Amino acid sequence: MYVLTEARQVEPILAQLPLLRRDRMIIEPVARGTTSALGLAALTLAERDPEAVMLSLPADHVVKGRRAFGAAIKRSARLAAGTDRLVTIGLRPTYPATGFGYIRTAGRFRGGGVTALKVDRFVEKPSLAKAREYLAEGDHYWNLAMFSWRVGVFLEELARYSPRHFRGLHRVLAARRAGDEARAARLYARLPADAVDNTIMERTDRLLLVPGGFEWVDIGSWSELHSLLPKDAAGNVLRGDPILVDAAGSFISAPGKAIAVIGVKDLVVIDTEEALLVVPRDRAQEVKSVVDRLKTRGKTKYL
C-alpha cells in the first residue's frame, strides 16, 4: 500500500500512520491536480513493477459496509488485471445530489471473469432538475473517483490524451533518479493542474464501471462533515467552546477563541488563524467559488 500525497502533508501523515514506511509514499512536490498526481504514481509504480495493477482510492471518503466494499475492490482489480481497460467503481444515486459528478452507462462488458458496465460518458455536477432525471433514468452512477488499471494501460491513455503531462512527468522522474529533487519540483510545478476526469476519463473509450453496494460519503464540504459528527441536542456540531443562543443545526468551529452565535439555523462558522468562513450549510459546496476568487486576486497564501 502506498500513500500518494503532496509534500506539505508528508509529516502529518507519517504521524498518523506510524507503520507506514517513507519509501511507501509517492510525493508531489506541489499539488497539481489528479492527472499529474495519478500519472506520477503510475510512473513510479511502473519502475518498480511494470505489470502492476494500481488501485486509487481517495482518502477523504467515509465508506461503510466492508464486505461489499471489498467485493467491489476485488472485482475492479480482477477486471483491470485481465483486460486492457481502465476501471472505475460507481454507486447508484440514492438522492438527487448536485455536489457529485455522474457516470452514464450503456451495456454490459465481460472480461477477466467479471461482468461490468460500459461507460457512455461522464457528466459534470448537475443542476437539481438534471440530478432528478438521472435518478429516475436508472443508468447513471455517482462518480466516486475510485479507479483501477494496469499501470501500462493508464500510461498509454495519458500519452494519448495528455501528452504534455506524459512528457513532463517523465522529465520529473528522470530528475528524481538523478537525485535532483529541486529540478524535479520545478518541472512538476509547470504541469497543468487538471483533473483526471477531464483529461482522460471523459475522453477514453476504454473505461468500464463496476457497481458498488456499500454506503459512501464524500467529505467534500462542511455540510457532509456535519452529517457525520456527533451533535448536541439542537443538532449543532461544536469545536471549541462557543456560546450559542437560539442556534440549531449549525457547524461552529473556533478552537481557542470566544465566539457567540445568536439566532441562527443551519449555519457554518469556521474560524482559523488566518481566515474566517461563514456560509449557510446548504451552500457549503460553494466554498470553491471563494477559492477561485482568492486565486484571481493572487491571495494564494490562504489556499
Structure write-up:
The protein is of the alpha/beta class and 303 residues long. The chain folds into two domains: 3-218, Spore Coat Polysaccharide Biosynthesis Protein SpsA, Chain A, CATH 3.90.550.10; 222-302, no CATH class. It contains ten helices and 16 strands. The protein has helices at residues 10-16, 33-48, 66-82, 128-137, 151-161, 163-177, 181-189, 196-201, 222-228, 287-296, and strands spanning 3-6, 25-28, 53-56, 61-64, 86-91, 102-111, 114-123, 140-150, 207-211, 215-218, 237-239, 243-245, 251-253, 260-262, 267-271, 276-280. The strands form five sheets. Strands 5-8-6-7-9 form a five-stranded mixed beta barrel. Strand 1 (3-6), helix 1 (10-16) and strand 2 (25-28) form a beta-alpha-beta unit. Helix 6 (163-177) packs antiparallel against helix 7 (181-189). The chain is globular and about 60 Å long. The model has no long low-confidence stretch (mean pLDDT 93).
